[in-house]
Amino acid sequence: MNEISPIYQNDFGIAFQWKHDEPQKSNKVQLIFRDIGLLLTPEELQYFSKCINDTLQSGKGNLCKDCKVKGECRSLLLNSPAHQITFAVSFQEVIEIRDLINGTLFKLELDSYFDEFGIN
């Protein structure tokens, strides 16, 4: 853990930046959830957030009414910033991923705001 600078985490995953990456060279965030790792720019995180919102909007009506696993089946398709990759996720996983992305974006924006005023 000494090689990373944590940004945000929840019970589902973690977002961090590698310490060996100089901030001027890379502003990418490593996002880890389930068995997936994504290295994304802040713009790609914003796009992923939009994909999550789209999935939640379209997926609410698609949940099985008589589902035996109560929404835990991976019946939703979540697009990613890599247009060739779509994740099969449960409704609860989408909620957890949304929290991870939104928390990460909030912390990045807060850090940027503090940097602007030299408060770090």
Name the structural class: alpha+beta
Work out the helix count.
2
**Gyration radius from CA atoms, angstroms:** 16 Å
Helix content, binned percent: 25-40%
Number of strands: 6
SSE order, as H and E?
Answer: EEEEHEEH
Coarse morphology: elongated
Verbal overview:
There is one protein chain. By secondary structure, this protein is α+β, with helices and mostly antiparallel strands. It has one domain (4-116). 37% of the residues lie in helices and 25% in strands. It is built from 2 helices and 6 strands. The strands form 2 sheets. The chain has a 4-stranded antiparallel β-sheet with strand order 1-2-3-4. The chain has a two-stranded antiparallel ribbon with strand order 5-6. Helix 1 (42-59) runs antiparallel to helix 2 (91-116). It is elongated and about 55 Å long.
Question: Can you give keywords for this protein?
Answer:
about 120 residues, two-stranded antiparallel ribbon, 2 helices, 6 strands, elongated
In short:
The protein is of the alpha+beta class and 120 residues long.
Architecture blueprint of SSEs:
Layout: E1 4-9, E2 13-18, E3 29-33, E4 36-40, H1 42-59, E5 76-79, E6 86-89, H2 91-116
Antiparallel strand pairs: 1-2, 2-3, 3-4, 5-6
